[in-house]
Write a structure and sequence with these properties.
about 400 residues, alpha/beta, eight-stranded mixed barrel, elongated
């Protein structure tokens, strides 16, 4: 049995009330530190905590305490991490082994391996069982519960954001990132283009697990993506998976020419079914048409032969069940809705429909939370605006009276 088709690690895991994994059970993914800080290294652990708080507090504000404790900002995290007990890395955060779908294993020593947050008891990371410690609103509390439920019951492995079509703002992404880390799942980010250098710099600071470049249609565009990756992450960009979107007929036509570079330099392909369908001149609701599924299967075969991950997105719902299972028979590492990424094996679960419903509920809560946030900002100056308008009106009336007299 191929490694990528083995029993997914989220099946059969036994977790405690705070999401911790009991002895002998498996975790939602096998990205874990090989040498964590022990409970006895509380001083270094506290440095890490203070440094992280200096970068971002849960409410989106920044604290200066980490600057005093460990030098401030992202660099403080790096320095504090190097002093933590049990760390074997010489260049940054502890080494970890990652297997996304089982197709590739990578060692991460990057300074912003954000997903491997220390979980020693001395750090006391907030949980839903300790709401007073959490600077999140009720909607975000529900969202966090949805992510944990998805992780434990439905095969959810990551959340997703886009700097491209979705236009995720930095403050929005930071909230999503915080929820994902507390739920102990990964983060996938679609950048703005194949050469979006600023987005890649930002992704490195955030500690993104999966990066996807959109609208890569030619070998040249793919080479630009590889060059941009190397420029920002270095030649050995371990710890983060880099994929590109195949979402047009032109990209499919050029896939054979792109595969050698993709196999040598990248980790996988994300098939965007909606844009691909529209590129063929078909309506959006034809996304589950057999001709579209046949195209995805063609890419699945290419990925299986080249040992590349395959992720399928684009109008993924209950209606996509048969198409996804057909693709899974060849290769399917993950599939995704707008905000939620599932392990590919989840398509074979009896709880697939419940998992999709949970993902839709999460997206709805996300949009409602976003709406309420910006509505509060829009309304926060209303009293001042009314006061100034009333003053202006009184002044205008007084001037009119003076002229009339």
């Amino acid at each position: 049995m191929p490694a990528w088709s083995r029993r997914p690690p989220w099946i059969g895991s036994e977790r405690g009330p705070n999401g911790e994994v009991s002895a002998g059970s498996t975790t939602p993914d096998d990205r874990r530190t090989t040498g964590r800080a022990s409970s006895g290294s509380s001083g270094a652990d506290q440095d890490i905590m203070r440094a992280r708080k200096a970068v971002l507090l849960p409410d989106g504000s920044r604290s200066g305490s980490g600057d005093e404790a460990a030098g401030g900002g992202a660099e403080a995290i790096i320095r504090a991490s190097r002093t933590a007990g049990g760390v074997t890395s010489t260049g940054g955060m502890p080494s970890v082994t990652e297997s996304c779908g089982g197709s590739r294993k990578m060692q991460s020593t990057g300074p912003h391996a954000y997903g491997i947050r220390p979980k020693a008891p001395s750090l006391s990371w907030p949980t839903t069982e300790n709401p007073k410690e959490m600077s999140v609103n009720p909607t975000e509390m529900r969202m966090l519960d949805m992510l944990k439920k998805g992780r434990d019951q439905f095969g959810v492995v990551a959340v997703k954001a886009e700097f491209e079509a979705e236009g995720t703002r930095p403050e929005e992404f930071l909230r999503l990132l915080e929820l994902a880390r507390r739920a102990d799942i990964k983060v996938a980010l679609k950048i703005g283009g194949c050469e979006a250098i600023s987005d890649l710099h930002a992704s490195k600071i955030y500690g993104v697990d999966h990066i996807i470049a959109p609208m890569v249609e030619t070998p040249y565009a793919l080479s630009k993506y590889v060059d941009a990756r190397t420029k920002t992450y270095g030649p050995d960009a371990t710890g983060t998976h880099f994929l590109f979107n195949l979402e047009t007929q032109s990209a499919l036509d050029n896939l054979g020419a792109m595969l050698p570079l993709a196999k040598a330099e990248l980790d996988g392909i994300v098939f965007g079914r909606v844009d691909f369908t529209l590129s063929r001149g078909l309506p959006r609701n034809a996304v589950n048409d057999p001709s579209i599924t046949e195209a995805v299967v063609e890419v699945a075969r290419a990925c299986a032969a080249a040992d590349l991950e395959l992720v399928v997105g684009g109008s993924v719902g209950i209606e996509a069940t048969n198409a996804l299972r057909e693709i899974r028979a060849i290769r399917l590492d993950r599939f995704e809705t707008r905000k939620i990424v599932f392990d590919g094996a989840a398509i074979d679960s009896a709880r697939f429909e419940a998992g999709i419903a949970n993902a839709v509920a999460f997206e709805l809560a996300w949009l409602e939370n976003k709406r309420d946030h910006y509505r509060a900002i829009a309304d926060e100056d209303l009293p001042r605006i009314r006061m100034i308008q009333e003053r202006s009106a009184r002044a205008a009336r007084a001037l009119l009276t003076s002229v009339a007299a």
